[in-house]
Structure formats: C-alpha cells, structure tokens
Amino acid sequence: MSDEPSSSVEFRREGGSTNDPPEGCRSRSGSSSSSGSLVGEAEEDYCENSPWVFIPEPMFTKIFLYLEPRDMLNAGQTCKRWNKLSRDDYIWRKYFQREFNVDTNIGLKPGAESWRSEFKRLTDNVPMVMTDVLTNHSHQVLHVSFSHNGKMFATCSKDGFVIVWNSAYPSTIRDSYDMRKLSWKYTQFSQFNQSDTLLLVSGVHFGSPHSTSGEIAVFTVQNGFRLRCRVTNRPYDIFGTWFSDQHLLSGDLHWLAHLVSSSILWLNKANQEVDSEHTPIRNQLYKFYNRNASSIRAIMVANCPWLGDEKKDEEGAEGPSTSDAAGQKPTTEDEEDDRRIGNPLSHYQMNQDQAMDNMYRAGRDIDLDFPYVPLENNDYASPIHYLDEYRREYEDSYYESSDDCLDDDDDQEDDDMSETEDLDNLCPKYLIFSTGSKTYTPHQIGFKRISSVNFPRRVDPGPSLKERIALRDRQRELEVIMREMSQEEIRLQYILQNETPPMEANWANYEAVADRFDKVDKLIDLHGHIIGMGLSPDHRYLYVNSRPWPKNYVIRNPLEPPPIAQEIDIHVIDLMTLKKVGTMLRAHKAYTPNTECFFIFLDVCDNYVASGAEDMHAYLWDRYYGVCLTKYQHDDVVNSVAFNPRDNEMLVTTSDDYEIKIWRSLSQAKKLGIQPVGKAIEFRKLKSRTTACH
C-alpha cells in the first residue's frame, strides 16, 4: 500500500465509462455495429469466450481486495459492472478495517452513509495539513481554547500574554493583553462563555517558587477587549470555569491541620460593577474536605439535562477515603524553574529532605511492575477500547446536545439583561474536578450534582461598627476572666448556663467534622496521576488523561506519590452512569517524574479525540472507532490541542517550542485554496494483503 491513500478526486469517480467493452462481452446477442464485419465477428467470438464473462462476483470481490483502494477505483472506470463492484460496501468495509486497523467486531458508525463514505471521511476530512504557524508568543504556549461560534481562539503562554486570534485563514491577532501588568507570572488557561461575549483567563501570580496563588481575569470580547473583573484563585491549577453565561467558578484553599485542608468553590458574577455595597458579587457554592495534602483541581461544569429526570433517591454519596497515612517522613520538591516545561502541578510543601528527593529521581530507573509493555511500533499509538454499551448509546448521545439548556444567541449584546436571570431555570449540572485521598497528586475524579443555585440578591450588612466594637470588648473581657478559671470551673459555668462547652475540632478525623463540609456524590479512582480532562460536545462523556501508577503499589506516605509510567492512558467516563466505558492504555508519551508532572490538555469533538504529549507530538483518534489516525509534529512538548467547534476539520496545537500550529483537512485546504506548509504523520497500519483478503 502506498503511503498516501486515494484522494477526494478519486472518490468523485462515481459513474461508469461510456466505453464499456467488457460489458459488451457479456452480451451473447452481439453488437449490431460489428455484424457483417470479420473483425467484429472475431471480437464477438472473443468476448463470448472471455474468462471475465464467467467470473462470479465473489471472485471479483476477492480480486479487488488484493488491490489498493485507488487501483480499485480506477478499475471501476472500466465498465458498469466493475463500477458497481467498486462501490460494493463489503469491499469498502474490508478496506476500512485493513487500512485503519479497525477491529472487525466494530460496526458502521451510527449515522454514517456507508463504509465507503467513512473511508473517505478518514482520508479527506481529518485535520492533516499544516496551514498556519503562529510565532507571536515569546515563551512556551500552555493552552488554547475556541469560542463556541468557532470564529476566535485564545492562547495562553508563559510570556504572560493572552492572545485572541481570528480563526479564519490566515489567522491574525484580534486582541492581546500582557497580564504581567497585574503581577501575573504567566497565563495558563482560558475559556469563552456560552455567548462568546466574555473570556475567562486564569493565571499564576508572581511569588515564591512554591507559591500556589493564582487569579482569574474576565475580559469583554465584543466592542473592545476590556478587563471586566478579577477574582482570586487558589491553588492556581483549579483553573476556574464558567458556571453560566454571566457567572464563573473560582477556588480557595484553607489549611486546617497537618495535611488537612478545605477547598472552597465560589460562584462569582462576571460583572462586579455594582451600585450598592449591599449587592453581592460572589457566593460560596461548596466547601470540600481534603486529606493527605490533596486539594480540588481542574474544575469543570457539565450540562446534564438527563439529571432532571432522575429520582433523587441516592443519598449515600461516596465521600473521600478515610485512609490514614500519618507519621511518615516528609518529602521535598525542587524549586520551580521558569524554563521548566509545561504548567507544573501546585502542591503542598513540607520540610525538605534531599535524600528522599534523590530516591524519587532514581525511581525512574527502577524496574517497577507496570502492567504495560513497550509498543512494537513507536510510530503508532494504541486505540481506544470501548465497552459495548458505549457504542449502543453512541447514536442517542451523538444527536443530542446539552446546549439545549443554554441560550445560544450569537447576537446577544446586552450582558446585564440576563445577569439577574442567568441562574434561573438552571439546567442540571455536574461539577467535575480532580482530587486525591491517598496522596497529594490528583488520582480521582470527583462529581457533584448541581440542581439549583441560590445567589443572594442582597448582602446582610450584619452588626454596625459600634456594635462590633462593643462585641469585641466583651469577648476580650470574657477571655481575661476565663484565663483565671480552671477547666473544671469553665465546664461548670457552661452547664449552669445550659450550654455545650466549645471543643476544638479534630480536623484529622473526617467523621467528626463531616457535617461542616459538602459531600462528593461520586469518586472514580484512576490509580494514576490525572493530567488533563475534556468533555464531549454533548457533555455526555468525559475523557481523562492519566499516567498510571505501578500495579498494586502501596502508598505509605501521602507526600511520597508513586512513580508514574511514561505512557499516558485515556479513560472515557459516561456521565449518565458515572462508569468507565472506554480505556486506551499506553496511548501516548510523557517522561517527567511525578514531582514535575504537568498538564497535558485534550479536546473532544463530534468525530475525533486529540491530545498533546511529551514526545513532541499531538495525537488524534477517531472517537467512534477508537483508532489513532495521525500525529502532529512540534519541536518540544505539546501542551494543548483544540478543535474548532463549528469545523471538526480544523485543529490547533500549542507547544513549548513557542509555536501555535493550525491543521486543516485536505478537503478544507483545497476548498480554501490553501497551500499547505507541512503535513502530519498519518497512521495506516496495514496487515499483510493475504491476511486481509481472507
């Protein structure tokens, strides 16, 4: 098989040729135009005795399967019979399975016209050719995100800038902002709101090497790129996300005891210009308990209309694990280097122990029992293996969209009009985040159902300044009196007043303080370091990048996370059942150790799944068939990828090589008259022809 398959030109050869001599050979009545001619009689005699006349169609099918697709298409121009055979869907199914290494048990994708059309789609309609290389960033490019209308995309970089681009060819800068003016170290994440009128930008503050302080800024996109509000965000890798069109989520972290903290999620107004000090601009949404130095990270919100139809009869939410890992030696982390690759994980800092740190680094060379074997072909990435229920449900989820819950009005310009009504008639949602319970590195996916939100319309002013001063003075007097009393006398005083003596909370015992926190509805442990998550367009499926731990590894110290594999797994979770329905093992590469692991973002569109990797490539899989189709070259780590939501044939990749590359399909490049500047590496893993023909 040649490296380049048949192109769209060959696929347009639909009709048979008007010159059909083999078709005439099948007619025993002969040709009237050749009767009376010795030459015509000879040709007729030859045609009637030609072996091609007597070959049955199954034999033709077997012969065609020995041909390459382009050769079979050419053969189909010979006559009407061959043309009909060249469009036989059985043959194209064999070609499709052989050419793209698709499991023979996987049927045709729901909604697809034929195997032939699917072969054409994976040949002509996959982002394959590089049409733009954008080099305006002066440092590593960490993230890219598209607007919902597909007209813009935003990039974040360690140079401190956020840049908004026009996605039409050739891509040009629409707006930009240097966040270093606001004491940011760099920008790390961005997201457009549903109406594409606002842009959320998340970043990291300047500070000590191990600072976890971050901030979220909101910019207007229409009628000028203006800073609208700023919200604190800690730790910075909580990222932040849009909750609705005019409200966003941020986080805060409070340490309660050794290795124990609480993560508070805040619901913030995107417009914080208020007329009164009594008008609230944010409200606490949830407060979660964290153990073993873990915290809430990478929050996202999924619109789940099916939750409104379910009965709320499962009150026994699965809370965090109660595993106890205390009294162990603390570990250490290296100081963060500004030239360090990727966006590193925020983490809890303890007393440094250089010997333990050296053991971590040496652990990369230890022969650990990972349940994986090296790929036979380093140029090929593993397929996604789905459970049967995924493909049974695929057709329904393929045509349904959670956007029905949202007001998708591209012409909406009056932001304030919907601000007070933005949280009314809220579509049921899932709050999704990564967290941990055994160690500080995120290894679990948490889910919290959100059915309604009450945002106060007025802040309770509380006591006046005079009243607060008087209350403070009384408390001080009481403290002086209590210091002169014994514990028994204090206890008797409370008993005489029919009050319960105040007790200091035992934060290390979750059961003792559980009533002070919100419960997580569901936790899914992936037994590996979670480095990225992405939702399908209909918000039905969650795709997760994870670097697995060694099999049966026992964590003895939460500050000593397990070594992680150099391969990235992709897990697929059905948000309707909250169960894993697909897994891709040993998918793509990552090399950094657990203490330096950073985020590798992935993206999902209707037809494809794409992800960055540390091997200087991004990868793309067909979402339904699960097979890897191509990989995209860079000169350094690929941190993020994003599909154009209105055009699945356009993909943007960003890298530590400071470059942004835009990839389009062969069909789109030809339609737009673009001269490609490069081409991706295409995966066409063929079996032997003999095997394929059988």
UniProtKB/TrEMBL annotation:
Keywords: WD repeat. Residues 1-40, 310-349, 397-421 are annotated as: Disordered. Residues 27-37 have a biased composition (Low complexity). It comes from the Eukaryota. WD repeats lie at residues 134-166, 631-663. Residues 49-95 form the F-box domain. InterPro entries: F-box-like_dom_sf, F-box_dom, FBXW5, WD40/YVTN_repeat-like_dom_sf, WD40_repeat_dom_sf, WD40_rpt. This is F-box domain-containing protein.
